[in-house]
Amino acid sequence: MTPRHAARARVFAFSLLALALAGCRSHDFPQYPANYREYVYITNGGSGTVTVLDVVNVRLDRELPVGQNPVTVAPSPTRNEVYVVNAGPVDGQGSISVINAENNTVAATIPLHRQPVAIDLDAEGKLAYVANSGSNSISVVDLKNRRELAQIGAGEEPVAVRLSPDGKTLAVANRKGDSLSLIDPASMSLRSIFAGCPGASDVAILPDSLKAFVACSAGHQVMSVALARAAQPAAAQPGSAPATPAQPDRLEALIDVGRGPAQVALKPDGGEIFVVNSLSNSISEVITGTNDVQGAYMMGENPVSGLVSRDNALLYIGNLRTQNVIVYAINEGRRVAWVHVGDGPSAMAFSAAGNLLFVVDARSNDVAVVRTASSSLFTLLSAGREPNAIVDKAFKLP
After folding, report:
1. Measured distance CA(173)–CA(180) in Å, rounded
2. For 144, 233, 239, 260, which has the most beta carbons within 10 A of its beta carbon?
3. Average pLDDT, the chain
4. Per-residue b/e over 187-211, b at no fewer than 16 CB within 10 Å?
5. What number of CA atoms fall less than 13 Å from residue 325's CA on the CB side?
6. Which 3-state string (H, E, C) describes 51-64?
7. pTM listed for this prediction
8. How do residues 325-346 score in pLDDT, each as one tens digit?
9. How far apart are CA 53 and CA 59, in angstroms?
10. Residue 152 Cα distances to 125, 178, 185, 191, 345, angstroms
């Protein structure tokens, strides 16, 4: 082959490669407008930082210092802000670091009480509810004015907090108290408490706000509680729904699942929950309407987290003692893929478009980026020490 022909061959080959890559990108990645921004935030408990990943370009943006021992993070639903809960020293006070997502800098620090470990926000992004595990309380935080409004008593060592979609119930899992506390957000007072859930560790509330499920991690059950409802008058139209009386909070069932249920993964449609049984290496599928266990399925070693796709079709399971995320097809009732990631996959989050799954690898201190369309690893990006929680935040600049 002459040098001229060789040069032409190289150009042709490069053109084919470029075309293939362009085709892959258009298939796997959305086309973003110029003012679109999207970041993933990972809390690194061992380094006191947050790793920020640029989702648009799939690369590391920065590692941002926050408070001591950051343990969880939540995005604002209305502002371009992200809230990092710093547990702080064992015997000291914790805090919230407020990150301005437009420039990824810490805009404010809000002091809290001892060992805050969990957070949830109201739908307007005005209030945050933070579980202070070392103070046995819930902080109600005014996010706009960066201050605590109230502190509400909970059970012993609250570790999970969830606000119902209708905003009328705050559910708190108390690990040492072996209980569920239900708080009225309007009056900021304790409404009910249900004991008998050993090592209560996680809470899920159905989209219709009618029921809460609590994982009892020190046992082998999930607690199902029907949430209080106000009386409803009969509809004016003939043949419409009749009047219904008021209903208090009440225990519906203690559902037998596997050993060490650590987390409850809720389908977006609310029809089922998937209980991650860390000590049984399994998941249990529970029908939420009837509290019946549909089945139990073996997963990898020490599953610790589950995440359901937005179309309710796939369940992703992170197995802490492996280097794999298992993909489970819900309607088919079987495992359909194993994705090799880093060491110790735990927390997970989807990109806004759902084309990427970000997996925190707790032992190898990195984040796996997985293509959801092909269930394949795209790349690994470095994180800080002991990464533990993750969220995605997408927005458009003005």
Report:
1. 5
2. 260
3. 92
4. eeebbbbbeebebbbbbbbbeebbb
5. 33
6. EEEECCCCEEEEEE
7. 0.90
8. 999 999 999 999 999 999 999 9
9. 6
10. 19, 18, 10, 11, 34
